[in-house]
Amino acid sequence: MKQAAISLALAGALASMAGTAAAEAGKTDFTFGGYIKADVMFSDYSNGAPDSGDLSRQFYVPGTIYGKDGNGNQVVDFQARETRFNFKTATDVDGHTLTGFIELDFMTHTDGNERVSNSYSPRIRHAYVSYDGWTAGQTWTTFQNASALPENLDFVGAADGTPFVRQAQVRYTSGAFQFALENPETTLSANQTGSRITSGSGMIPDAVARYNFKTEGGASFSLSGIARQLNVEQNGLDDSALGYGASFAGIIPVGKDDLRFTATWGEGLGRYMALNFANAGTLDANGNIETLGSFGGFVSYRHWWNEQWRSSFTVSGMSVDNKVEYSGAKVNKDAMSAYVNLLYSPSKPLTFGVEYMYATNSMENGTDGDLNRVIFSAKYAL
């Protein structure tokens, strides 16, 4: 009977998503959400702006602001790409809750153009099902505490100081503890050239454990650890190494205000930090993997001026312990960014805001790049 109820609930959810009337199947509740967000970004790149449509023109991506020779420094971009929508089902199955969730937005794609239509394909952010503490599908990596991210207008906000990955996984939650096996992917720097090698080799998933806890004063924290196999088996290369790391994050109430932070350290973290600002390791002259150490973090203070006005002040950064004797010096070394904004919500679902951000990146060979950006945004939460 229980299996039949679960099957009926899943069938009802799928039928509803296909546009048929199945709202009563398996006592399922359906919820639609998301928001509409429009951004206007005035950017000043120290060494020449990226081309129109490049990722750095959509939001701050550490490692992409070194500039492009021949291009002007100052650009303006209008976009509504961050707009997103989600659909959730929740079904009572003999006292247990079966949940399905899918969310899409329009970031990162370059299949449209700004000449006529500004059309961009939707992409999956989240797509998972949960039942009795088990979650299967794509969502935030368990290594990251997404709730601790600052309230910034930039798409990520503090990108260089935080873990930031969404990927397929199987996760089990028991009280304050979470355990997950997640999709593995290795990024390495080639010997001497520093160019990126991406490898999907290996049979061992990334393993993550996390503990969430709260204090009597209302502060919430998370401590997470990760162990992963770095593996490459391609083009005559065949080696593996162990990567590991830890991340501590939290939100501390200060009256009505709050302080948010994340601090992360590890060996071989690579793509888990700062949008893959650095690789997990580098190859030596014999094709063996040498892991790279990294440390990153951010702190953000959000102050409420009154019921409708608020500001966040954020500082973020990351540094990498490169082994230039193997990779060469054309590899990312460190990144830093700072943000200040002013947000106004005349009603709860509607927010207007302005934000100034400054970012600077540098390589081991002395190359650096700076970005000054002012963002104006309007957001309507559904």
TrEMBL record:
The keyword Signal applies. Residues 1-23 form the signal peptide. InterPro entries: DcaP. Keywords: Signal. Pfam families: DcaP (PF19577). This is Porin.
